Protein backbone atom coordinates (compact mmCIF):
# COMPACT_ATOMS: atom_id res chain seq x y z
CA UNK A 1 0.00 0.00 0.00
CA UNK A 2 1.35 3.43 -0.97
CA UNK A 3 -0.31 6.26 0.94
CA UNK A 4 0.93 9.10 -1.28
CA UNK A 5 -1.01 12.27 -0.45
CA UNK A 6 -3.30 10.32 1.86
CA UNK A 7 -5.24 7.07 2.25
CA UNK A 8 -7.67 5.38 4.63
CA UNK A 9 -7.38 1.68 5.31
CA UNK A 10 -8.73 -0.99 7.62
CA UNK A 11 -7.08 -4.18 8.81
CA UNK A 12 -9.83 -6.80 9.08
CA UNK A 13 -9.36 -10.48 9.93
CA UNK A 14 -11.99 -13.05 8.88
CA UNK A 15 -14.25 -13.99 11.79
CA UNK A 16 -15.57 -17.25 10.34
CA UNK A 17 -12.24 -19.09 10.66
CA UNK A 18 -10.08 -19.73 13.68
CA UNK A 19 -6.55 -18.74 12.73
CA UNK A 20 -3.44 -16.90 13.80
CA UNK A 21 -1.80 -14.12 11.84
CA UNK A 22 1.81 -13.11 12.28
CA UNK A 23 2.78 -9.88 10.59
CA UNK A 24 5.52 -7.27 10.49
CA UNK A 25 4.28 -3.88 9.37
CA UNK A 26 6.83 -1.53 7.79
CA UNK A 27 6.25 2.19 7.27
CA UNK A 28 8.52 3.74 4.63
CA UNK A 29 8.76 7.49 4.02
CA UNK A 30 8.28 8.58 0.41
CA UNK A 31 10.79 10.97 -1.13
CA UNK A 32 9.64 14.49 -1.95
CA UNK A 33 9.29 13.54 -5.62
CA UNK A 34 6.52 11.00 -4.83
CA UNK A 35 4.91 11.98 -1.54
CA UNK A 36 2.02 13.82 -3.23
CA UNK A 37 1.17 11.00 -5.64
CA UNK A 38 -2.24 9.34 -5.67
CA UNK A 39 -2.67 6.50 -3.23
CA UNK A 40 -2.42 2.98 -4.63
CA UNK A 41 -2.56 -0.66 -3.59
CA UNK A 42 -0.87 -3.60 -5.28
CA UNK A 43 -1.01 -7.24 -4.22
CA UNK A 44 2.01 -9.49 -4.68
CA UNK A 45 0.90 -13.04 -3.83
CA UNK A 46 4.18 -14.58 -4.99
CA UNK A 47 7.62 -13.31 -4.04
CA UNK A 48 10.99 -14.81 -5.01
CA UNK A 49 12.73 -17.19 -2.63
CA UNK A 50 16.46 -17.98 -2.57
CA UNK A 51 17.20 -21.40 -1.13
CA UNK A 52 20.55 -22.06 0.49
CA UNK A 53 21.79 -25.05 2.43
CA UNK A 54 21.55 -23.07 5.67
CA UNK A 55 18.48 -20.89 5.08
CA UNK A 56 15.57 -19.81 2.90
CA UNK A 57 15.39 -16.12 2.02
CA UNK A 58 12.18 -14.56 0.72
CA UNK A 59 13.00 -11.28 -1.02
CA UNK A 60 10.20 -8.95 0.07
CA UNK A 61 11.55 -5.71 -1.41
CA UNK A 62 14.53 -4.76 -3.53
CA UNK A 63 17.45 -6.97 -4.53
CA UNK A 64 19.25 -9.46 -2.30
CA UNK A 65 21.35 -12.57 -2.95
CA UNK A 66 21.19 -11.87 -6.69
CA UNK A 67 17.37 -11.87 -6.86
CA UNK A 68 14.99 -8.90 -7.25
CA UNK A 69 11.49 -8.60 -5.80
CA UNK A 70 8.69 -7.29 -8.10
CA UNK A 71 7.40 -4.94 -5.37
CA UNK A 72 7.42 -1.27 -6.40
CA UNK A 73 9.65 1.06 -4.37
CA UNK A 74 10.50 4.75 -4.69
CA UNK A 75 13.92 4.79 -3.03
CA UNK A 76 16.67 2.12 -2.98
CA UNK A 77 15.42 -0.39 -0.38
CA UNK A 78 15.70 -4.03 0.62
CA UNK A 79 13.70 -6.32 2.91
CA UNK A 80 14.31 -10.04 3.38
CA UNK A 81 12.43 -12.68 5.37
CA UNK A 82 15.25 -15.00 6.43
CA UNK A 83 14.45 -18.44 7.88
CA UNK A 84 17.19 -20.78 9.11
CA UNK A 85 16.83 -24.38 7.88
CA UNK A 86 19.22 -25.69 10.51
CA UNK A 87 21.04 -24.44 13.56
CA UNK A 88 24.57 -23.20 13.18
CA UNK A 89 26.55 -20.37 11.67
CA UNK A 90 26.26 -18.80 8.23
CA UNK A 91 27.22 -15.67 6.34
CA UNK A 92 24.61 -13.29 4.94
CA UNK A 93 25.67 -10.90 2.17
CA UNK A 94 24.44 -7.28 2.12
CA UNK A 95 24.78 -4.15 0.00
CA UNK A 96 27.54 -2.08 1.60
CA UNK A 97 25.95 1.14 0.25
CA UNK A 98 22.90 0.52 2.45
CA UNK A 99 22.38 0.84 6.17
CA UNK A 100 20.59 -2.18 7.62
CA UNK A 101 18.49 -3.27 10.56
CA UNK A 102 17.82 -6.84 11.69
CA UNK A 103 15.28 -8.19 14.16
CA UNK A 104 14.34 -11.71 15.26
CA UNK A 105 10.70 -12.63 14.69
CA UNK A 106 10.98 -16.23 15.90
CA UNK A 107 13.68 -18.24 17.63
CA UNK A 108 16.97 -16.78 18.82
CA UNK A 109 20.13 -15.57 17.12
CA UNK A 110 23.34 -13.64 17.46
CA UNK A 111 24.64 -11.46 14.64
CA UNK A 112 28.34 -10.59 14.51
CA UNK A 113 28.50 -11.81 18.10
CA UNK A 114 25.64 -9.55 19.27
CA UNK A 115 22.80 -11.47 20.92
CA UNK A 116 19.49 -10.47 19.37
CA UNK A 117 16.14 -10.88 21.10
CA UNK A 118 12.65 -10.51 19.65
CA UNK A 119 11.54 -6.89 19.62
CA UNK A 120 15.09 -5.51 19.34
CA UNK A 121 16.48 -3.97 16.15
CA UNK A 122 20.20 -4.37 15.53
CA UNK A 123 21.55 -1.52 13.38
CA UNK A 124 24.39 -1.70 10.86
CA UNK A 125 25.61 1.53 9.22
CA UNK A 126 26.88 1.71 5.66
CA UNK A 127 30.00 -0.30 4.96
CA UNK A 128 28.88 -3.80 5.95
CA UNK A 129 28.96 -6.22 3.01
CA UNK A 130 28.20 -9.32 5.09
CA UNK A 131 27.34 -10.38 8.62
CA UNK A 132 27.79 -13.64 10.51
CA UNK A 133 24.58 -15.14 11.89
CA UNK A 134 24.45 -17.84 14.57
CA UNK A 135 20.96 -19.18 15.18
CA UNK A 136 18.73 -22.10 16.08
CA UNK A 137 16.78 -24.10 13.51
CA UNK A 138 13.60 -22.36 12.22
CA UNK A 139 14.78 -18.99 13.53
CA UNK A 140 13.16 -16.19 11.51
CA UNK A 141 14.97 -12.89 10.99
CA UNK A 142 13.64 -9.80 9.26
CA UNK A 143 16.31 -7.83 7.40
CA UNK A 144 15.54 -4.27 6.24
CA UNK A 145 17.83 -1.73 4.65
CA UNK A 146 18.30 1.07 2.19
CA UNK A 147 20.24 4.17 1.32
CA UNK A 148 20.17 6.72 4.16
CA UNK A 149 17.13 8.98 3.72
CA UNK A 150 18.43 12.47 2.92
CA UNK A 151 15.27 14.45 3.70
CA UNK A 152 14.07 15.65 7.10
CA UNK A 153 10.58 14.41 7.94
CA UNK A 154 7.94 14.86 10.61
CA UNK A 155 6.01 11.83 11.88
CA UNK A 156 3.00 12.51 14.11
CA UNK A 157 0.15 10.08 14.73
CA UNK A 158 -0.58 8.61 11.25
CA UNK A 159 0.73 11.61 9.33
CA UNK A 160 4.13 11.94 7.64
CA UNK A 161 5.10 15.41 6.42
CA UNK A 162 7.93 17.89 6.10
CA UNK A 163 6.59 20.87 8.07
CA UNK A 164 4.33 21.58 11.04
CA UNK A 165 1.93 23.34 8.67
CA UNK A 166 1.58 20.22 6.53
CA UNK A 167 0.79 18.10 9.58
CA UNK A 168 -1.79 20.63 10.76
CA UNK A 169 -3.42 20.64 7.32
CA UNK A 170 -3.55 16.85 7.24
CA UNK A 171 -5.08 16.90 10.74
CA UNK A 172 -7.76 19.35 9.63
CA UNK A 173 -8.48 17.32 6.48
CA UNK A 174 -8.88 14.13 8.52
CA UNK A 175 -11.24 15.74 11.02
CA UNK A 176 -13.27 17.26 8.18
CA UNK A 177 -13.48 13.84 6.45
CA UNK A 178 -11.90 15.34 3.35
CA UNK A 179 -11.95 13.23 0.15
CA UNK A 180 -8.15 13.45 0.33
CA UNK A 181 -8.03 10.28 2.46
CA UNK A 182 -10.84 8.39 0.76
CA UNK A 183 -13.52 6.43 2.58
CA UNK A 184 -14.07 2.83 3.72
CA UNK A 185 -17.53 1.44 3.06
CA UNK A 186 -17.08 -1.96 4.72
CA UNK A 187 -19.29 -2.03 7.82
CA UNK A 188 -16.93 -4.48 9.56
CA UNK A 189 -14.09 -1.96 9.55
CA UNK A 190 -15.15 -0.47 12.88
CA UNK A 191 -15.24 3.15 13.98
CA UNK A 192 -13.12 5.73 12.20
CA UNK A 193 -10.10 6.69 14.29
CA UNK A 194 -10.11 10.07 16.00
CA UNK A 195 -6.92 12.06 15.58
CA UNK A 196 -5.54 13.43 18.88
CA UNK A 197 -5.29 17.16 19.39
CA UNK A 198 -2.29 19.09 18.12
CA UNK A 199 -2.90 21.97 20.52
CA UNK A 200 0.32 23.25 22.08
CA UNK A 201 2.57 20.84 20.20
CA UNK A 202 5.66 21.99 18.36
CA UNK A 203 6.91 19.16 16.20
CA UNK A 204 10.59 18.63 15.52
CA UNK A 205 11.90 17.09 12.33
CA UNK A 206 14.73 14.63 12.03
CA UNK A 207 16.46 12.57 9.35
CA UNK A 208 15.24 8.97 8.99
SSE sequence, one letter per element: EEEEEEEEEEEEEEHE
Mean of residue pLDDT values: 91
CATH class of the largest domain: Mainly Beta
- Our count of helices gives 1
The outline comes out as globular
CATH homologous superfamily heading of the largest domain: Jelly Rolls
Percentage beta strand: 25-35%
Name its key features:
mainly beta, 6-stranded antiparallel beta sheet, globular, 208 residues, Jelly Rolls, 4-stranded antiparallel beta sheet
Please give a structural write-up.
There is one protein chain. This protein has 208 residues and is mainly beta. It folds into two domains: 49-146, Jelly Rolls (Sandwich); 152-207, no CATH class. It has one helix at residues 164-175; strands at residues 49-51, 55-61, 63-64, 67-68, 77-84, 88-93, 99-106, 109-111, 114-116, 122-124, 130-135, 140-146, 152-156, 159-161, 206-207. The chain has a six-stranded antiparallel sheet with strand order 1-2-5-12-7-10, with no helix packed on it. It is globular and about 55 Å long. 18% of the residues are buried.
Q: How is this fold's topology laid out?
A:
Elements: E1 49-51, E2 55-61, E3 63-64, E4 67-68, E5 77-84, E6 88-93, E7 99-106, E8 109-111, E9 114-116, E10 122-124, E11 130-135, E12 140-146, E13 152-156, E14 159-161, H1 164-175, E15 206-207
Question: Concise description?
Answer:
The protein contains one helix and 15 strands. It is mainly beta and 208 residues long.
Amino acid sequence: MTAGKGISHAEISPTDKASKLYAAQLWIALPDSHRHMDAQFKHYPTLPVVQKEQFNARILVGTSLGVTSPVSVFTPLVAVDLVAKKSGCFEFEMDAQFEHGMTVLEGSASINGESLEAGTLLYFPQGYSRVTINCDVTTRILVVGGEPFKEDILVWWNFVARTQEEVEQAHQDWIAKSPRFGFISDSTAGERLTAPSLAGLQLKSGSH
